[in-house]
Amino acid sequence: MNLLEQFQSIRESAEHGLASALHFEAEGAELVRSFRPNERLILLGGGNIAQPLCRYAADLGFSVIVADDRPTFANRPRFPEAHTVYCDRFENAIDRIGIGEGDYVAVITRGHRYDADCLRKILRGTMPKYLGMIGSKRRTAGLLHLLEGEGFDRAQLDAIHTPIGLDIGALSVKEIAISIVAELIACRRANTNRRSHSSIMTSEDIDLPLLRYVADESIDKVLLLVYDTSGSTPVKSGSFMAVDSSTKFMGTIGGGCSESAVLRQAYYLIGTGESRSVSIDMSNDVAEKEGMVCGGQMKVLLADLSKR
């Protein structure tokens, strides 16, 4: 597929909440820009570990949902970074949330009884991508043995990350939260292609209005995609924008004089069917005079997306 067709496919996937990727070439190299919807992290339990865990996970792009049956623990002031907070019995909250196969779930309730209630409910439904349970090895092994005795599948029980989190010797509440976040990242990146750091773009966010604009075949436009950065730059690799024949543009590659200069070059490519790479040096004399203090370099692919 050409770039326009790929963006149309990416837009459709994004509208359905699915991940996808753009494959393209620049300077003879094969590159990938992933588009990843915000995964949901469901925290069953709103205790002390849940607070830093919610904060750290939200900063990493997770859409965090918190559930607890205690009003003093399940409230918005306690979890300002959370997308949703449910104050309800755990079984009811799980029904309301509707756990799917792409979700991440951390069972971090205040006790053995509530952990068991959560696991029984989850294991009777759709198994999430990640399911972890807090507790000591002895305590969690005993609970899994109990559930196995109730008829739950041993393979499903073995898939639960328990004790939850990577073993980094964590002791404090924040350290334990970091160990859990580290395990979430390991799960998220398990199938990431690592053939080359430079071949995979850093940005993976989805801007649906921008995707719809770029994928609209009725609009002649040029794509501007940052595919390489070094030093301090205003945006990460994978950032992109587009400009059309009316000089309307959407998105950004950092703003300022550098963006304006590249936009002018892009405008003259509309309808030509051509592509080119442009380097932006933010540490040269001109950049310094224009007040650009980043001091890094970016490489930008300009590609005509006009339908001919």
Low-confidence stretches: none
Overall outline? elongated
Radius of gyration: 23 Å
Treating each run of at least 4 consecutive H or I residues as one helix, how many helices? Answer: 10
Largest sheet: 5 strands, parallel
Count of individual beta strands: 12
Tell me the strand order in the biggest sheet. 5-4-3-6-7
Indicate the structural class: alpha/beta
- C-alpha termini separation: 15 Å
What is the chain-wise order of helices and strands?
Answer: HEEEHEEHEHEHHHHEEEHEHE
Helix content: 25-40%
Beta-strand content bin: 15-25%
Mean pLDDT: 91
Topology overview:
Blueprint: H1 3-15, E1 20-26, E2 29-35, E3 40-44, H2 50-59, E4 63-68, E5 84-87, H3 90-97, E6 104-107, H4 112-123, E7 130-133, H5 137-149, H6 154-158, H7 173-188, H8 208-215, E8 221-230, E9 240-244, E10 249-251, H9 256-267, E11 275-281, H10 285-289, E12 297-304
Parallel strand pairs: 3-4, 3-6, 4-5, 6-7
Antiparallel strand pairs: 1-2, 8-9, 8-12, 9-10, 11-12
How would you describe what is shown here?
The chain is an alpha/beta fold and 308 residues long. It has a five-stranded parallel β-sheet with strand order 5-4-3-6-7, with helices on both faces. It has a five-stranded antiparallel β-sheet with strand order 10-9-8-12-11, sandwiched between helices. Strand 3, helix 2 and strand 4 form a beta-alpha-beta unit. Helix 1 packs antiparallel against helix 8 and helix 2 crosses helix 7. The longest helix has 16 residues.
